[in-house]
């Protein structure tokens, strides 16, 4: 039996004449079965859209067992990812509601309370901006400003809203600050670079000068909105009817419209998003942008009817379009900075939301646009 097991059967299938079958008693080692071939399979876990890899053997009796093991592993990965996403969503909702309620109270208070909150947000955003400038992605192609210049610029940006509240005009202060920063960079030791000057001056403009228009919008437009019905029932101890100014209503409508634009854009993009909007932010879609524009206009028109300002639906819809445009391009500009820096978030100050700059990027340019619309455009139409 051992000899027969080691023998091989020799058959000539294509011979012209038949040949007898013969068993060769010469020992011949049987070939070893080839090792199981491993193939690399990529499995897409849909809840987080991450790729997970698994090595699975092809053929043999071990394949079903490996498949079962891989399925169990994938189920564990999906459960872990689902838990992480649920925890992240809860953090975003809780902190988002907290920020929204706090921002509403700050806007309603106005005055130095609103200005102090803007100054604190500006200081944190400026620190994050200069950290992005110093990150490896951006610093690899340019020379960032020295740390002492970055810190001085952050302090100057935080002081700008205070100067705007008490003096009204910020242009001279911004120009003087830019000149001082430029002198400090030029007179530094070593080899001054233009990239240092441009990034520092843009930081003063982006993080300091532009947010000051929110102070001018909320606190500078102190004309009472006499047609607003809420003003008649507002408590006297909180300012009475004179508390409801054009600046307060314009700020409330603007902030609410931006929140609606972000919410509608997120929902519309998730449900109908197919066409990419721009390569700067791959997650944004044309369908989501259209949904955000629609939500922004509808919110502005609804609040204008409730608060009786602006007095026409056409001006309210134009105000909504302006808010959406400023919020969209503010978000894209911050995404461009983060993309060059090679980071996902500008910071980690707010759990579930990233940094301050990630939350206020939609408001940076919007304040200046809204103030110009209320101060210049609406008077041309008698509003």
From TrEMBL:
Keywords: Lipid biosynthesis, Lipid metabolism, Membrane, Nucleotidyltransferase, Phospholipid biosynthesis, Phospholipid metabolism, Transferase, Transmembrane, Transmembrane helix. It is a multi-pass membrane protein. It catalyses: a 1,2-diacyl-sn-glycero-3-phosphate + CTP + H(+) = a CDP-1,2-diacyl-sn-glycerol + diphosphate. The chain crosses the membrane at residues 93-126, 166-187, 194-217, 244-267, 288-307. Its main location: membrane. GO terms for cellular component: membrane. The keyword Lipid biosynthesis applies. The keyword Protein biosynthesis does not apply. Its EC number is 2.7.7.41. One of its GO terms (molecular function) is phosphatidate cytidylyltransferase activity. InterPro entries: PC_trans (IPR000374). It is found in: Membrane. Pfam families: CTP_transf_1. It is an enzyme of class 2 (transferase). Pathway: Lipid metabolism; Phospholipid metabolism; CDP-diacylglycerol biosynthesis; CDP-diacylglycerol from sn-glycerol 3-phosphate: step 3/3. One of its GO terms (biological process) is phospholipid biosynthetic process. Belongs to the CDS family. PANTHER family: PHOSPHATIDATE CYTIDYLYLTRANSFERASE 4, CHLOROPLASTIC, PHOSPHATIDATE CYTIDYLYLTRANSFERASE 5, CHLOROPLASTIC. This is Phosphatidate cytidylyltransferase. It comes from Musa troglodytarum. The lineage of its organism: Eukaryota, Viridiplantae, Streptophyta, Embryophyta, Tracheophyta.
């Amino acid at each position: 039996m051992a000899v027969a097991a080691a023998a091989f059967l020799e058959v000539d299938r294509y011979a012209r004449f038949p040949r007898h079958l013969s068993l060769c008693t010469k020992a011949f080692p049987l070939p070893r079965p080839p090792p199981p071939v491993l193939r690399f399979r990529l499995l897409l876990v849909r809840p987080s859209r991450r790729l997970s890899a698994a090595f699975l053997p092809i053929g043999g009796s071990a394949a079903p067992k490996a498949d079962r093991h891989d399925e169990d592993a994938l189920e564990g990965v999906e459960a872990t990812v689902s838990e992480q996403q649920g925890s992240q969503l809860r953090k975003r909702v809780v902190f988002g509601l907290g920020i929204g309620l706090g921002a509403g109270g700050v806007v309603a208070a106005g005055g130095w309370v609103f200005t102090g909150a803007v100054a604190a947000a500006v200081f944190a955003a400026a620190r994050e901006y200069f950290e992005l400038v110093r990150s490896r992605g951006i610093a690899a192609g340019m020379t960032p400003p020295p740390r002492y210049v970055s810190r001085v610029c952050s302090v100057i940006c935080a002081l700008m809203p205070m100067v705007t509240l008490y003096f009204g005009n910020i242009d001279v202060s911004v120009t003087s600050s830019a000149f001082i920063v430029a002198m400090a960079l030029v007179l530094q030791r070593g080899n001054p670079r233009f990239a240092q000057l441009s990034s520092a001056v843009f930081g003063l403009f982006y993080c300091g000068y532009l947010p000051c228009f929110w102070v001018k919008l909320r606190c500078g437009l102190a004309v009472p909105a006499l047609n607003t019905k809420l003003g008649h029932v507002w408590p006297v101890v909180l300012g009475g009817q004179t508390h409801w100014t054009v600046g307060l209503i314009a700020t409330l409508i603007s902030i609410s419209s931006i929140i609606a634009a972000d919410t509608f854009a997120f929902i519309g993009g998730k449900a109908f998003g197919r066409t990419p909007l721009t390569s700067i932010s791959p997650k944004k879609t044309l369908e989501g942008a259209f949904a955000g524009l629609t939500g922004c206009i509808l919110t502005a028109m609804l609040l204008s009817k409730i608060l009786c300002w602006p007095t026409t639906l056409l001006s309210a819809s134009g105000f909504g379009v302006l808010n959406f445009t400023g919020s969209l391009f503010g978000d894209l500009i911050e995404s461009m900075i983060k993309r060059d820096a090679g980071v996902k978030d500008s910071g980690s100050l707010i759990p579930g939301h990233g940094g301050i700059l990630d939350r206020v990027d939609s408001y940076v340019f919007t304040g200046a646009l809204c103030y110009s619309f209320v101060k210049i455009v609406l008077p041309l139409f008698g509003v």
